[in-house]
């Protein structure tokens, strides 16, 4: 028997979830027994049970994950200088579309991310099927992806746009020269054209999703151009971005990576000035930051 009062005292100010744990568990059991077609109600039932299990510290849970991160593969077509990805360490193992087809329980999951570890999810040979299967199993799920957006084929484009809610594009530069130096062998012009094609497909489908966001791994080679990023993002229809401080990668055999010498914080005064200019440009171009700037 749970001593809720004792648990409340331990949790301090943490809000007590809605209703009771017993009701949340009973709702899940009834839902599993009914096995009804997917609806938003499945997500609500699961979220409520997850909240209670977390609040009570229950280890043997009866809920499903609210956020599902699936490493579809461990292969990437880029060789970024700030990333430890190395083909010689890739296993080439991949999740098969049929594995996901069986996962009918995904109707309980709120968010799906086809990313885990270092990889480019759009390289997966069954990627179109995977998006469609997830959507069939879980019509109300939010699908988010992080991608370098270099592999947007004509075939994939409609599926991407009709299924994704958020696309985080690993952009990492505001100038062609630094992009191509930081993310070889990817080509700046092709990436910008692919983003444009996504916007065209959104217009064709009459959708305002996926929302496009940019990721930017800050280092001394892309610090100077940081204030140019917001106007570029506005021009190509990217609404938000996050600036992440370079985490210096461990050396790998196959190529030279950035080192301690390449962090942006070496010249703190310059970095802080660039941050100020960047924030002013974000305001001018209405670009939202999805996380605070690095604290130098
Ligand atoms: S695109 Fe992503 S996974 Fe691929 S090398 Fe660059 S940072 Fe690493």
Describe the structure.
The structure is a single chain. The chain is an alpha/beta fold and 296 residues long. The protein folds into two domains: 4-56, no CATH class; 67-289, Aldolase class I (TIM Barrel). It is 39% helix and 11% strand. It is built from ten helices and seven strands. It has a seven-stranded parallel beta sheet, with no helix packed on it. Helix 9 links the parallel strand 5 and strand 6 (240-245). Helix 6 packs across helix 8 (188-205) and helix 9 runs parallel beside helix 10. The longest helix is centred in the middle third of the chain and has 18 residues, at 188-205. Bound molecules: iron/sulfur cluster (SF4).
Based on secondary structure, the structural category is: alpha/beta
CATH homology superfamily name of the largest domain = Aldolase class I
Strand order of the largest sheet: 1-2-3-4-5-6-7
Helix percent reads 25-40%
Mean pLDDT: 95
Helical element count? 10
Highlighted features:
2 domains; alpha/beta; globular; 11% strand; 296 residues; 10 helices; 7 strands; single chain; TIM Barrel; seven-stranded parallel beta sheet; binds iron/sulfur cluster
How do the helices and strands line up, and which of them pair or pack?
Layout: H1 4-11, H2 21-34, H3 40-56, E1 67-69, H4 97-101, E2 111-113, H5 127-137, E3 142-147, H6 156-163, E4 166-170, H7 176-182, H8 188-205, E5 211-218, H9 229-236, E6 240-245, H10 268-285, E7 288-289
Parallel strand pairs: 1-2, 2-3, 3-4, 4-5, 5-6, 6-7
Helix pairs in contact: 2-3, 5-6, 6-8, 9-10
This protein binds iron/sulfur cluster.
